[in-house]
Amino acid sequence: MNRLAVNLRRLRKGRGWTQQELAGKANVPQSSIHYIERGVRNPRVSTVEKLAVALGVDIVELLREWPADRPGR
Questions:
Q1: 20, 21, 50, 51 - which has most CB atoms within 10 Å?
Q2: 33-42 contacts at long range (C-beta below 8 A, 24 or more positions apart)
Q3: How many domains does the chain have?
Q4: Which of the four pLDDT bands, split at 50, 70 and 90, describes residue 66?
């Protein structure tokens, strides 16, 4: 799974939000969040920006690799 998918799910669930709640806060279709979290689609930069704003994080937080994401750790 890609970094964006893992980070988006981690941040969303950390706030206790459903995909539908995040979609409403970011003003994007819920299906987009579903596909992004499954790693099926790569979103536009503008969508990633909306998600970052809704989650209250810098866009880098959605794209960075966390140590736990690395194989063998």
A1: 51
A2: 33/8, 36/4, 36/5, 36/8, 37/5, 37/8, 37/9, 37/12, 38/5, 39/1, 39/2, 39/5, 42/2, 42/4
A3: 1
A4: low
Rounded to whole angstroms, the Cα distance separating 63 from 4 reads: 5
The model's pLDDT over 12-55, given as tens digits with 9 standing for 90+, comes to 999 999 999 999 999 999 999 999 999 998 899 999 999 999 99
What are the backbone dihedrals phi and psi of residue 52, each rounded to the nearest 5 degrees, phi first? -60, -45
Domain that holds residue 14: 3-66
Query: What CATH code is carried by the domain that includes residue 24?
Result: 1.10.260.40
pLDDT confidence of residue 73: 45
pTM of the model: 0.86
